[in-house]
Structures are given as C-alpha cells and as structure tokens.
Amino acid sequence: ASVDGLGLLDEVLARARYADHQEAVEPIVAPDVGVKFKDARHPLLDGDAIPIDVDISPGASRAIVITGPNTGGKTVALKTIGLLHLMVACGLHVPATYARLSVYDRVMADIGDEQSIEKGLSTFASHMENLVDMVRTADRGTLVLVDELGSSTDPAEGAALGQAILERLLEA
Questions:
Q1: Cα–Cα 20 to 30 A to 112, which of 70, 75, 96, 147?
Q2: What's the whole-model pTM score?
Q3: 121, 5, 6, 147: which is closest to 64 by C-alpha?
Q4: pLDDT per position as a tens digit, 109-125
C-alpha cells in the first residue's frame, strides 16, 4: 500500500511540475463545447513555440482548413491541436492561457511524409492508404488531423481528391 501511495504521489507531483514548467492551465472539459485554445503552445517546443488560438464553437462547421505558404506553421498547428487534445485525454494541464474542449473518443492523424520503402509505397500512395482507413473508420467521435491533403500528386486532381475526402469525413 505504501509503494502504491508513493507511486500515486510521484505521479501527481510529476504532473504538477510539468504543468508549472509549461505554464499550463487546467482545461475545461465538457461534452459538446467544441474546442477553444487561447495562446496554445506545442508542448515539445518550449520557448520556440509560437502560440496559436483555436476556436471551434459547437454547432459550427466540424472542419478547419489551414492554408498558407510552406513554412511549417500549419503542420505545427495541427500537431499542437492533436497533442493538446491527447494531453487533456490523459488528464494533463495544457500549455495555453485558456483551454476548453470536448474529448474525442479517438484521434487519427496523417501528418508528414510516410513514404514506405518496405511496402513499396510512394508518398502519395502512403497518404492514400492512411486516408482510406480514416474515411472508413472515422465517426463523429473521431478527431481527424490531415496535413497536406491531396498533395504529392497533380494539383488539380489533388484538390478534387482533398475536397471529396473532406466531404466524406464530414458526412460521418
């Protein structure tokens, strides 16, 4: 019993120290509140993290499309949203000045170049394999994060494919 008690105390202390180090806040978690992060920072970038604001009100569109030049900020924003969600699901405070969200049942992500030499897949084929799985299995309880949807192929075909995938995911 003493070892179990010390283990629990060690866990709580580690969470508190991490929250203090990250200048993290306790998130407000409730069903059907959407997602709102104010000054959210990627938890692994420490001082290099540029804060972002995310506000998806309940009843609003269920999709966010982030566009802009190729400088890496969009990918970091997606990863920040996904990581903060997972931190909240694990009971951690998050590096932000405000956090309110509903916790999804499942998180699915296709972020980065997943070219597979072992499987003989190109970057495009690898993305397609992941996206097909997402389209087949995602439902309203799934947070889906996709980086560069429809990339690594002809731009016109990629745009049409990206639009079709988004529409299908929103039907779930």
A1: 96
A2: 0.82
A3: 147
A4: 888 655 444 554 566 77
